[in-house]
Design goal:
With 379 residues, the protein is an alpha/beta fold. It folds into 2 domains: 174 residues, FAD/NAD(P)-binding domain (3-Layer(bba) Sandwich), CATH 3.50.50.60; 111 residues, FAD/NAD(P)-binding domain (3-Layer(bba) Sandwich), CATH 3.50.50.60. The chain has 9 helices and 24 strands. The strands form 7 sheets. Strands 5-2-1-9-20-19 form a 6-stranded mixed sheet, covered by helices on one side. α1 runs parallel beside α7 and α5 runs parallel beside α6. It is globular and about 70 Å long. The protein starts with 5 loop residues before the first strand and ends in a 6-residue tail after the last strand. The structure holds flavin-adenine dinucleotide.
Amino acid sequence: MTAKRRVLVVGAGIAGAVTANNLVRYGLDVTVVEPSEHHVYQPGLVDYLMGEARTDEIIRPVESVLNKGVKLVRDKAVKVDLKGRKVMTSGGKELSYDYLVLAPGVVNKGSPSWHTLNEIDQIRKSLDATDPKRIVISYKLPVKCPAAPFEIASLIKLTKPKSEVTLLVPVKEPPPLQRKISQTLAESASRLGVKVVRGAEVQEINSENKVVKTSEGSYEYDLLLFDHPISAPPEFADVAVDKGFVPVDRETLRVKGYPEVFAVGDVNNIASPPKNGAAAHFQAMTAVSQILAETLGNAEAERYKGQAMCAVYAGDKGAFVFMNDEGSYVYPPSPLWRTMKRAFTDLYWATLSGGVDSMFNTLSKYFSKRVEPVKPGQQ
Ligand SMILES: Cc1cc2nc3c(=O)[nH]c(=O)nc-3n(C[C@H](O)[C@H](O)[C@H](O)COP(=O)(O)OP(=O)(O)OC[C@H]3O[C@@H](n4cnc5c(N)ncnc54)[C@H](O)[C@@H]3O)c2cc1C
């Protein structure tokens, strides 16, 4: 009898959990290395900021998001030795593998941003304590979930209608694939009274005088929310050699030069679609399919075609976007999508088990036929 193939997954976020949970069901020997005690549903941070979700709705113990049979090493990967096929941990372990799946997400290159519960708690306190009149929201690319700044601006304006909320968007024109959803979100925010300024790239933040200087002028603020650019966590610097991200073949998610190594989710160098949870999920499904086709040999390996989909807050309503390599499809704002967005907080936990992947595939096929195409290479 041949030995079980050993798969080492780094990170138990969306991409890592979906990968591990699917592979263990097919009898592979799956180990996840993850330092954190908790898995955070990051889109729910926006709801938590607005007081619409409790921490126990958006945070669960890591053990609870991993299927039975997945081995968890509660430790931090500190070095990846691709040639020697091993990963070293901060606790001194050397973990070897037949397949390696890197899914450690990203970190901000500055703080505070809005990616962690601590940061969101700080923002909540600032919003409650000082009742700021002029609130400026901005970010520097690359970011994850480019819809989040629009959502945050609109939701703050909804709860503080008397405050002046300004959203500084660093690019004049979003990439063609994101244009429709970006316009939808900007129009919805503007209707509420949010001032959306496009092409305002932040050049300098003077926190003493509370002024942010941009290519489109200077803006005074009482409260500034600024999302710093992202890159792979520093432990992966040796492999994150494409502008801070791990270079992969975009269809197979295999790391260039190392076919037994995959990088899925925010950490890889795929920039279109923009980094988001659904893309991380679809990429994990692809890596699983690639590994199973090779180890079990009973199915054709799927390829990643740039799928992502998401319900987002749009002003006082919600919208839905699907995108892939061909184009995008946007459902215009409606109260239904707002409810769906909120309801996804519960559904999310079930998606991590891999149990609803067939639904993801069905939705992907459905929307793929409806996308408004963009020209190849213009995504
Ligand atoms: C405010 C906000 C709103 C968002 N809204 C949406 C939305 O509406 N829709 C959407 O689709 N996406 C949204 N996103 C983006 C989405 O949450 C991310 O794209 C997604 O979580 C990426 O998944 P991932 O598995 O790549 O990384 P993550 O989910 O970040 O997981 C990475 C995991 O790796 C672990 N890790 C890190 N370093 C190491 C190490 N050295 N060793 C071992 N493990 C490590 C981390 O602890 C973490 O558990 C939002 C994000 C934010 C911050």
